[in-house]
Amino acid sequence: MEQNLSLYRIFYTVAQTGNISKAARILYISQPAISKAISKLEENLSTPLFFRNSRGVTLTKEGELLYQHVKIAFHELDCAENELARVHKLGIGHIRMGVSTTLCRYMLIPYLKEFIDTHPHISFTIENQSSGETLSMLERQTIDIGFIAQPPVERHISFLHMMHIVDTFVAAPSYMEHLYLREGRNTNYFQTGTIMLLDKKNITRTFIDQYLTEQRVDIQHLIELTTMDLLIEFAKIGVGIGCCIRECVTKELESGELVELTAPGSIPRRSIGFVISDSLAQNPATKEFINFIHKKINFSPKN
Fold first, then answer.
1. Environment class of residue 163 by beta-carbon count within 10 Å: exposed (0-12), middle (13-18) or buried (19+)?
2. Where does residue 112 fall: left (phi above 0), alpha (psi -120 to 50 degrees), or beta otherwise?
3. Do residues 146 and 96 make contact, with C-beta atoms less than 8 angstroms apart?
4. pTM for this predicted structure
5. Can you give the C-alpha Rg of the chain in angstroms?
6. What is the pLDDT at residue 197?
7. How confident is the model at residue 152 (pLDDT cuts 50, 70, 90)?
8. How far apart are the first and last CA of the chain?
9. Residue ranges of the alpha helices (H) in the chain?
10. Is the CA virtual torsion 277, 283, 285, 291 positive or negative?
11. Phi/psi at 249 (nearest 5 deg)?
12. Do 130 and 259 touch, CB atoms closer than 8 A?
């Protein structure tokens, strides 16, 4: 089939024009080359395709049958080329992205909004899950890019830093007042309070567990939650003390709805950004998004 494709283009043009010399001018090849190509195709198909006469050529019955199919095939190819040209001209594309609810809501949406404003013909599929699951999906090549807190050293992925974040412990003022009434102002809230952490599937939990181990902190009463949004809401209504990203509770801390607690030692800053698989061929839309992010990093104050 592959070796016949150029022969079919010649056959199609000759059938349309009904004249070998006209076909030669359209295709910018010699008449003998046209005749040789037609003979070769007839040989390959073991059937005559044209009647030759002094005025030109006409299709045989078999040639007419072939022409109807070839006409449809070349029409589809023309449509495909036109569609690709339209995609290129308008910048049409699609990006599959993985991101946690927290990072999407508090950090990603502003960047997405600006990108979509300037690239309205690129659409997104957003897979919402933990950062660990995002890394797994990237490894399985079911997403193009992920937005996560920087993972431990991973092979075959590239990490594009966007900003730093700080983890902290917060609680409702009323919760802390009741805890102090019961246990005294000098109480160790890790031992006497209810501590709320994300579940162990989350990269944030892995990071916090490492911090707690290094500080030799032993939590006595623990609640595990699947999302930071839920953890923050539970902290606001006084269920317990939540470990969350400070940037996610800025408004609550400023208004006094939540208070920030002193933690032992110093919780290291973390980096969040985009991960791309080194082995995954990037589609044009993803490349455009990465270029956009690079520009935002270069022209934004360093965090």
1. middle
2. alpha
3. no
4. 0.65
5. 33
6. 97
7. low
8. 58
9. 5-17, 20-27, 31-45, 61-90, 101-103, 109-118, 131-139, 173-183, 189-192, 203-214, 228-236, 250-255, 284-299
10. positive
11. -125, 25
12. no
